[in-house]
């Protein structure tokens, strides 16, 4: 078994239990924090502790899918947002890739985040009140949709936002059918129990490049091979309205979409109100609030 080691942050003297952005390759670290901090009551979440993720069928009704699809289409086409930093476009096609802080841009999405069927899932896993660390809409158009390379979200949120522990979960709500062929999310079941330190120092304002294509804060091919051989790879598929709830340290990624079938989702990150951000652990300054919120107000019903 690999033992978790710590490093001391000179600027604060506090212990960093998940050191990353290293100058030389680091050892994979065993997670010491729980995965489930609360009590699971929803049957769909019963294997969350073991797998690090859970699928929830029919979280949205067909009518809600249609309404939210229209809403995200409105956001992508809103001319007043074209020069907004919260709108991320593809490097090559210049199509909209993501819109961040959507719970502040859309009243409908803001209402959805507070619903018990949504935030309640996060509260069960995290065992506390929760707030929105990040929200966004992801668009993967047909034929030229660009995927996301393998990564652990917690590695970035720890290094660049200052999230102390992996006490956060993400909820990806599908607004289109997810097939094995159209770039649907791949996950490594159980990989949330292993933290993979990454190489390289974080440049100033690294988020400007990484939101289009991340090159720093990603595991090596050897890392991915080791994890895949240990945990295997599963894929999230399902009809529009289904959702995937997953741990912040779960290794996941998606391939490009060269099919005619687009893929889009609402992506909500819930952090525990007992795990609020400190100074970044491996970056010169925190990322902007629309990427890593520093408003820790718990969600109310």
UniProtKB/TrEMBL annotation:
This is Ectoine hydroxylase. Pfam families: PhyH (PF05721). Transmembrane segments: none annotated. InterPro entries: EctD (IPR012774), Phytyl_CoA_dOase-like (IPR008775). GO terms for molecular function: 2-oxoglutarate-dependent dioxygenase activity; iron ion binding. Homodimer. It comes from the Bacteria. Belongs to the PhyH family. EctD subfamily. Residues 1-34 are annotated as: Disordered. Involved in the biosynthesis of 5-hydroxyectoine, called compatible solute, which helps organisms to survive extreme osmotic stress by acting as a highly soluble organic osmolyte. Catalyzes the 2-oxoglutarate-dependent selective hydroxylation of L-ectoine to yield (4S,5S)-5-hydroxyectoine. The gene is thpD. It comes from Nocardia colli. It catalyses: L-ectoine + 2-oxoglutarate + O2 = 5-hydroxyectoine + succinate + CO2. Its cofactor is Fe(2+). It is an enzyme of class 1 (oxidoreductase). Residues 1-10 have a biased composition (Basic and acidic residues). Its EC number is 1.14.11.55. Keywords: Dioxygenase, Iron, Metal-binding, Oxidoreductase.
């Amino acid at each position: 078994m690999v033992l978790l080691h710590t490093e001391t942050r000179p600027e604060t003297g506090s212990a960093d239990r998940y050191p990353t952005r290293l100058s030389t390759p680091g050892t994979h670290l065993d997670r010491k924090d729980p995965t489930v901090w609360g009590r699971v009551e929803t049957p769909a979440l019963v294997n969350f502790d073991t797998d690090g993720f859970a699928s929830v069928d029919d979280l949205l009704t067909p009518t809600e899918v249609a309404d939210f699809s229209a809403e995200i289409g409105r956001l992508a086409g809103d001319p007043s947002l074209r020069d907004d930093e919260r709108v991320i476009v593809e490097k090559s096609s210049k199509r909209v890739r993501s819109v961040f802080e959507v719970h502040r841009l859309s009243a409908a999405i803001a209402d959805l985040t507070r619903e018990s069927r949504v935030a309640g899932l996060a509260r069960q896993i995290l065992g506390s009140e929760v707030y929105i660390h990040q929200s966004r809409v992801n668009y993967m158009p047909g034929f030229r949709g660009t995927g996301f390379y393998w990564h652990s979200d917690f590695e970035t949120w720890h290094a660049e936002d200052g999230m102390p522990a992996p006490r956060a979960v993400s909820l990806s709500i599908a607004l289109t059918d997810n097939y094995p062929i159209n770039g649907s999310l791949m996950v490594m079941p159980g990989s949330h129990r292993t933290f993979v330190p990454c190489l390289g120092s974080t440049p100033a304002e690294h988020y400007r490049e990484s939101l289009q294509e991340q090159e720093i804060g990603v595991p090596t091919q050897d890392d991915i091979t080791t994890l895949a051989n240990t945990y295997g790879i599963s894929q999230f598929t399902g009809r529009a309205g289904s959702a995937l709830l997953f741990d912040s340290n779960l290794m996941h990624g998606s391939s490009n979409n060269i099919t005619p079938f687009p893929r889009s989702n609402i992506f909500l990150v819930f952090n525990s109100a007992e795990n609020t951000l400190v100074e970044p652990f491996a970056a010169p300054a925190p990322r902007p609030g629309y990427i890593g919120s520093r408003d820790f107000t718990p969600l109310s019903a």
